[in-house]
Amino acid sequence: MNKDALLQLLAEVQRGMVSPEAAQQRLAQLPFEDTGFAKIDHHRSLRAGMPEVVFAAGKTPAQAAEIFSRIAKNGVNALATHVDEVAFTAIHALCPAAEYHPLARVVTLRQTQTESRGHIAVVCAGTSDIPIAEEAALTAELFGSKVTRIHDVGVAGLHRLLAQSEILKSADVIVVCAGMEGALPSVVGGLVAVPVIAVPTSVGYGASFAGAAALLGMLNSCSPNVTVVNIDNGFGAGYVATLIARAGFID
Predict the structure, then answer these.
(1) Alpha carbon distances (Å) from 3 to 9, 58, 110
(2) CA-CA distance, 21 to 52, in Å (whole number)?
(3) pLDDT tens sequence across 147-166
(4) Measured in Å, how far apart are the chain's first and last C-alpha atoms?
(5) Which of 195, 186, 131, 196 is nearest to 154 (CA)?
(6) In the chain, what are the domain boundaries?
(7) Is residue 217 a contact partner of residue 163, using CB atoms and an 8 Å limit?
(8) How confident is the model over 183-199, as pLDDT tens digits?
(9) CATH 3.40.50.261 corresponds to the domain 119-247
(10) Cα 185 to Cα 173: distance, rounded to the nearest angstrom
């Protein structure tokens, strides 16, 4: 249930198309729905503007599918992250229209078309960082942002990044995914006048400590417009970038 769906339901009650009793049944599960193994927050779209998202890792395929399908029943755009093929098979059985993005390990179900609010550039340092960048890009696109993808523009060849300067300057917020030493977000931050969300990835050799080196480098960025999410958290970056991009378009 989102704001538009709620207003439509109330209008249908007003016109006599839906009985007050039927509307009450639909609204009764707004706070949350208890399945026994999960308490699904159907109220989140009304509070935060975007629905609850399923983190599939650690859940059984049946649990992930059940949560995803119950979120989808409310007519919102649904998203699941860290989904393997077994879990997607279970989700697809309940939601045949759901789409799997294997590179990003993301499942999306678009049920509403939202007006694009804000432009997000999703940048990655190397080709190995693309899966995390795609998780960010797909999240932002599903929840209503225009996204431009810029791949393989790491600091080992800065001319590749500088060639994208016009796109970078046109963005309302930029997500930058990088592994190894994690230097790219600081460079991007020094080129633009918008927020930069840095995503350390677990790409690198042994001394990168599975992304810890990139994380610490990004946390110590000297570019003051850079902020950081957790290692490999493309979803978190895409989600926050969407909220920032929306801020200039609030009704």
Answers:
(1) 10, 31, 17
(2) 26
(3) 999 999 999 999 999 999 99
(4) 19
(5) 186
(6) 3-109, 119-247
(7) no
(8) 999 999 999 999 999 99
(9) no
(10) 12
